[in-house]
Specification:
Elements (H helix, E strand, L loop, with lengths): L6 E2 L5 H12 L1 H11 L6 H4 L7 H9 L2 E8 L5 H15 L3 H37 L2 E7 L4 E7 H8 L4 E6 L2 E4 L2 E2 L14 H5 L2 H6 L8 E6 L29 E3 L13 H10 L16 E6 L5 E3 H12 L16 E4 L1 E2 L9 H9 L3 E5 L24 E6 L23 E4 L3 E5 L3 E7 L1 H18 L5 H11 L23 H7 L4 E12 L2 E4 L2 E5 L4 E4 L6 E7 L1 E9 L5 E7 L4 E3 L2 E3 L4 E10 L10 E4 L8 E2 L5 E7 L1 E8 L6 E7 L2 E3 L2 E3 L4 E7 L8 E4 L6 E6 L8 E11 L10 E8 L10 E9 L4 E6 L5 E3 L3 E6 L9 E4 L9 E5 L2 E4 L9 E8 L4 E4 L5 E2 L3 E7 L5 E6 L2 E7 L5 E7 L3 E11 L2 E5 L3 E5 L6 E5 L4 E3 L4 E8 L5 E7 L12 E7 L2 E7 L5 E11 L5 E5 ...
Parallel strand pairs: 8-10, 8-12, 9-10, 12-14, 14-15, 15-16, 19-26, 19-27, 28-34, 28-35, 50-57, 59-66
Antiparallel strand pairs: 1-37, 2-4, 2-5, 3-4, 6-11, 6-13, 7-18, 17-18, 19-20, 19-23, 21-22, 21-24, 24-25, 28-31, 29-30, 29-32, 32-33, 36-48, 37-45, 38-44, 38-46, 39-42, 39-43, 39-45, 39-48, 40-41, 40-44, 46-47, 49-51, 51-54, 52-53, 52-55, 55-56, 55-57, 58-60, 60-63, 61-62, 61-64, 62-63, 64-65, ...
Length: 1141
């Protein structure tokens, strides 16, 4: 899909007109510049077909002196031959499957390394020379593809291209993470703490059988992972839950920044990993399909893109994990690698050798099929590379209704194969995100691929000897076929072979499958008519859709006894008990009866006024097939639906929506009170400079212009009340067109682009050469953050409206074009589109900020302050009586003076807007107490012995706030203060006073502490503390020296009175004192040496007899072992030091 160029009034000269006419006849030429401007991925294999050095690389050298580029060598390693040889050896020697896999991986790696070393050596030598000359900044070799990444000058690149062993010289492109998020709430599963996508593929049924991926390792090449996320920490291979130790070697690799500890600055990788293995230790947040598996990860993406060089480094690490020192471990390679990223559509084999070698090493390669984007609008053949390779297992995304996501790219592949290979849940997915949090509403094939990777882990747990080819066969064979109007047959290029089925896949290699087929029909006047329904197995939760043309279905299931249920919208379900037998076909037909219909009616009223509300829309959440109804002028409604239990939602602009649980059985009555939704003006948002410079239009209707709007930083949500547009009279025709449409979109798309349409198209009439204001209040458009105001051109040239643009001074980078259902950044030369938005904010509940709750006052006059929404009026209520009013200012604050009454005063702020109550603050209770000061909890409360220089804290509590307090310390007899003046106390918190007294160098017994408190009215009270103070003088301890006996041990003190430890030489003898200073006797081991200390503690030398055994200790006292010469004779001592005769 190509982007069209808009035309401006400033360009409409005769020459411009001729160019436009010619462009209509030759759209390819008209779009050439636009294709170059867009960020489409270029198929480098095609552009470099005739030359080794691609045109894109040469273009990069025109901009930069040094460029990073890739070298692709001609020679490829024959790993297939190496694998065959390995298998022959394994068969001959009857090796285990695990050993054979290790040998296979080792053979692959060895062959790759050998080929790369041999083929690259000449180029390596040349590059090393150029490094010394300053022409090469860096280079790195990759054996996995027999290639290199080089950062150097153009001349170096040209010379490399001249080497005969070099096949191509390519630019270092960037690839994208496939991610698209939505604001939708996460869907609920039928199982507690289990996400809907996990349940849909049948994983919980396998958990019950003890199959959860234990013993299998999954990997991801993504944006990283928060390794210590509660749902992922215990699943990280580098974490030892038993010891709490962490080792990131061989478990984590950062190809972008080289950081040694796993992290995720984009959230994508953490979300993907959660879908594979996530769950918390307590059983909550079961977001992962294989919670028993371990994960490792490579970070190759930053800011949603990753370079080819980084992705090659990542691929090589997956094949052979490497630690921080460069050591490699083939046996630490994962069993499956998830790739939720990709490039553009079409033939681009830059990564194909990687995928081949992963397969050859027994690593299952899962890839996301890719999402639609500005550069890939989807449709036939849009599936991205590397997912479109024959060797890649591509995964498309489905929603909760098993319908392929509109964002999911389609096949066939450029190799003529069905793509995607399979589908998995990938819409509205909840999983783990950084900061130990969870987030739902994620859309994308990025969310679908990890589901398949996890199921591969489940298969590997059951049979680790399965080959990659065999696993593909199992997944495809056991998938639930999916079709729709666009893809009526299975397999197809929308769903592949269908929805992945973990339960069937695993069961097929354990027990085998049986087939159940039949028809689901209804009886109408004696004839059987087909029904569009589902047939499900209740125990495994597996189901298939019936063919709406004939009601037929076919369901493959594991053998055994099960209950099968047929159901269809508007019909009563039916069940049958069946027995699936291996490789046998069973028949089970169902005839369903229509469910009776009933009605629910009632009246909708305003919760505040009690008045009936007209124009309220009511709908059933669980049944979108039932058309919504509206209330009449009396607030009455009637709605008819099939009998059952529903959630009835009532909504109207100006009111908060309300959900009510109802049961329709015959005729029922439900009245609802709606809470009004009050707003106040929030101003106008715009980014043009207000000066019309030109005007833009397209020749045909349907295209559009948009401006991205941002709320003030202190506002998280708003109501869009008006769209404001400036149109210029182009005067290209005598007939002036004024019709146009308005749309409002949120910013939930990729990189903040429009994601979900919130309102529109809304028909409007333009005012020419002035601002046109379109009232949007009736549409109750609530935005949470950034949003887009969009003008849709509905008329054709020459009567189409011209949207005014300024001269782009300054250019705000907020203007976008809307073409063929996609949004694109506008061109800088277009200027800023003159589109604005007016908003309003919901009236906030008022809050009283002063006084504080439970505050006590002595003065009856106080000032009540608080926060509320501008333009509202606040009525202050005291004990349910109005005592004052104030208009809230633009700053959102109010101040009301009031008088309190004796005792408690319950203050409430009531917000009013246009005479209507909008909300009430929480009550604040304050007290007016005119009593005398009271001192309580005076401390110290018990007697204390203190020494000079110590600090004594004196404190008490009181009903007095803001008083003055001090204390004195008095002698017990004279009652006069020892301190020369009163000591001031501080009020550390309301009603709490504290002071500190430093003990003087005197000796006093039972000194008295007296405190004094004076309130703001001059009332004074004193009180003595119960605790008395006794000041003691410290005793001088006699210094010990030499040998001293105490506590049953001898100690030695030096001249300073300090205990000596370790070896001590005293009067020509050696002694040993342990860490406590105690003298040691008998045998002593120090390090690896033994000594003997006699009863006096003295170290012995020479011959020693202990019992009947002789020992010999040298001059340093060390016990001897082995052969020793003593006085010219040789003696042998065993390892215990005992002399052996």
């Amino acid at each position: 899909m190509k982007r069209k160029k808009q035309y401006h009034m400033r360009l409409f000269s005769i020459v411009a007109a001729l160019i436009m006419v010619f462009s209509l006849l030759t759209p390819g030429l008209a779009n050439a510049e636009l294709i170059e401007r867009s960020s489409r991925y270029v198929n480098d294999s095609e552009t470099a077909a005739k030359e080794k050095m691609s045109n894109r690389l040469q273009a990069k050298f025109e901009k930069d002196e040094r460029v990073t580029f890739l070298i692709k060598f001609k020679e490829k390693a024959d790993t297939t031959k190496a694998i065959k040889q390995t298998k022959d050896i394994a068969k001959k020697e009857k090796l285990s499957a695990n050993k054979e896999k290790f040998m296979q991986r080792s053979a692959v790696v060895s062959e790759l390394k050998a080929t790369a070393h041999e083929e690259q050596q000449n180029v390596v030598k040349y590059l090393e020379q150029e490094v010394h000359r300053g022409n090469v900044e860096s280079f790195k070799s990759y054996f996995i593809v027999n290639g290199m990444a080089v950062t150097a000058t153009k001349e170096v690149a040209k010379k490399i291209a001249a080497f005969s062993e070099v096949e191509k010289v390519l630019p270092n492109e960037t690839r994208q993470l496939f991610v698209s998020t939505t604001k939708e709430n996460s869907l609920n599963s039928n199982l507690a703490n289990v996400e809907w996508n996990v349940e849909r593929v049948g994983a919980p049924a396998l958990w019950e059988k003890g199959i959860n991926g234990t013993g299998v390792v999954v990997a991801s090449i993504d944006s990283g992972v928060q390794w210590d996320h509660p749902a992922l920490k215990e699943k990280y291979r580098g974490y030892n839950a038993a010891t709490g130790e962490v080792n990131h070697d061989f478990n984590w690799f950062d190809a972008t920044a080289g950081r040694s500890v796993p992290y995720d600055d984009l959230a994508h990788g953490t979300h993907v990993t959660g879908t594979m293995v996530g769950s918390e230790p307590d059983g909550s947040n079961k977001i992962g399909i294989a919670p028993g598996a371990k994960w490792i990860a490579v970070k190759a993406f930053s800011e949603t893109s990753g370079s080819d060089a980084n992705l090659l480094a990542a691929a090589e690490w997956i094949l052979v994990p490497t630690d921080s020192k460069g050591n490699t471990r083939v046996d630490m390679a994962p069993d499956v690698v998830n790739n939720s990223w990709g490039g553009g559509p079409g033939l681009d084999e830059w990564y194909r050798d990687v995928v081949k070698e992963w397969r050859n090493a027994g690593i299952f390669p899962t890839f996301s099929a890719g999402n639609t984007s500005m550069t890939n609008n989807g449709g036939p053949g849009s599936v991205a590379n590397p997912a479109n390779y024959p060797e890649a297992f591509a995964v498309g995304a489905t929603d909760s209704n098993d319908i392929v996501g509109d964002f999911s790219l389609r096949g066939p592949s450029p190799y003529g194969e069905i793509k995607p290979d399979i589908s998995a849940p990938g819409a509205n997915i909840r999983s783990s995100i950084p900061h130990s949090d969870y987030e739902g509403g994620w859309d994308g094939t990025s969310m679908a691929a990890p589901a398949v990777s996890a199921i591969v882990a489940l298969l590997y747990e059951v049979d680790g000897s399965l080959s990659v080819d065999k696993i593909e066969e199992i997944l495809i064979k056991t998938a639930t076929p999916l079709t729709d109007k666009e893809y009526p047959e299975s397999p197809n290029d929308g769903y592949g072979y269908g929805l992945v089925n973990a339960y069937n896949a695993v069961s097929s290699i354990r027990e085998g499958l049986g087939i159940l087929e039949g028809k689901v029909v209804q009886t109408n006047e004696g004839s059987d008519l087909p029904i569009r329904g589902k047939v499900s197995v209740l125990e495994s939760r597996q189901y298939v859709n019936t063919n709406p043309e004939n009601g037929a279905y076919k369901l493959a299931h594991t053998i055994g006894n099960y209950t099968v249920q047929a159901e269809a919208y508007g019909y009563q379900s039916k069940q049958q008990s069946v027995t699936f037998e291996k490789d046998k076909v069973l028949q089970a037909d169902f005839t369903l009866k229509e469910i009776p219909k009933g009605t629910v009616s009632g009246v909708i009223t305003d919760e505040k006024s009690g008045e009936a509300v007209e124009g309220v829309t009511l709908l059933l959440i669980e049944d979108a097939n039932i058309a919504p109804v509206s209330t009449d002028k009396d607030g009455r409604y009637t709605l008819t639906a099939y009998e059952g239990t529903y959630t009835l939602r009532a909504m109207r602009s100006g009111y908060h929506s309300q959900d009510v649980k109802i049961t329709i059985n015959g005729d029922s009555h439900v009245d609802i009170d709606l809470k009004p939704f009050f707003t106040y003006p929030g101003g106008e948002i715009g980014y043009d400079n207000g000066i019309v410079d030109a005007a833009s239009m397209y020749f045909g209707g349907g295209a559009g212009w948009a401006v991205k709007m941002s709320l003030p930083k202190d506002k998280k949500s708003a109501i869009v009340t008006d769209g404001v547009f400036h149109f210029k009279n182009k005067k290209y025709s005598d007939t002036v067109g004024t019709e146009f449409s308005v749309e409002v979109w949120d910013a939930s798309g990729s990189n903040g682009l429009p994601g979900k349409k919130l309102a529109g198209p809304i028909t409007a009439e333009a005012v020419l050469d002035d601002w046109t204001v379109v009232d949007l209040r009736d549409y109750n458009i609530k935005v949470d953050g950034d949003f887009y105001m969009v003008y849709i051109q509905t008329l054709n040239y020459p009567i189409a409206l011209g949207l005014a643009t300024d001269n782009g001074n300054p250019y705000m980078e907020r203007s976008y074009q809307y073409l063929d259902g996609e949004f694109y950044p506008a061109f800088v030369e277009d200027g800023n589109y003159m589109i604005r938005a007016r908003i309003s904010y919901e009236v906030d509940t008022p809050v009283i900020t002063s006084p504080k709750h439970d505050e006590v006052f002595k003065d009856e006059n106080i000032m009540v302050e608080g926060n509320a929404s501008p333009t509202t009026t606040i009525k202050l209520m005291n004990n349910n009586k109005e005592v004052g009013t104030a208009k809230v200012g633009d700053d959102g604050k109010f101040t009301i003076p009031t008088k309190m009454t004796e005792g408690e005063n319950k203050l409430v702020a009531v917000s009013m807007l246009n005479g209507k109550l909008t909300g009430e603050s929480g009550p604040i209770t304050v007290s007016l107490i005119k009593e005398k000061p009271v001192i309580k909890d005076l401390k110290p409360a018990i007697d204390q012995n203190v020494f000079p220089g110590e600090k004594v804290e004196i404190s008490f509590q009181s009903n007095v706030i803001g008083g003055e307090a001090n204390f004195e310390v008095k002698l017990p007899a004279q009652k006069n203060a020892h301190s020369s003046s009163k000591n001031k106390m501080e009020e550390v918190e309301p009603g709490v006073y504290k002071g500190v007294w430093t003990v003087p160098d005197v000796k006093i017994k039972n000194a008295i502490i007296e405190v004094e408190l004076t309130d703001i009215d001059g009332n004074r009270v004193t009180q003595e503390a119960q605790g008395k103070l006794t000041i003691n003088q410290p005793e001088v301890e006699e210094v010990k020296t030499g040998w001293n006996f105490g506590n049953g041990n001898w100690y030695y003190y030096d001249k300073k009175g300090s205990k000596v430890t370790g070896w001590l030489k005293e009067r020509a003898k050696w002694y040993y004192l342990d860490k406590s200073g105690a003298m040691q006797t008998s045998w002593l081991k120090e390090g690896a040496k033994w000594y003997y200390l006699d009863k006096s503690g003295a170290m012995q030398t020479g011959w020693l007899k202990e019992g009947a055994k002789w020992y010999y200790l040298d001059k340093s006292g060390v016990m001897q072992t082995g052969w020793v010469t003593i006085s010219g004779k040789r003696y042998f001592f065993n390892s215990s030091g005992v002399w052996v005769e």
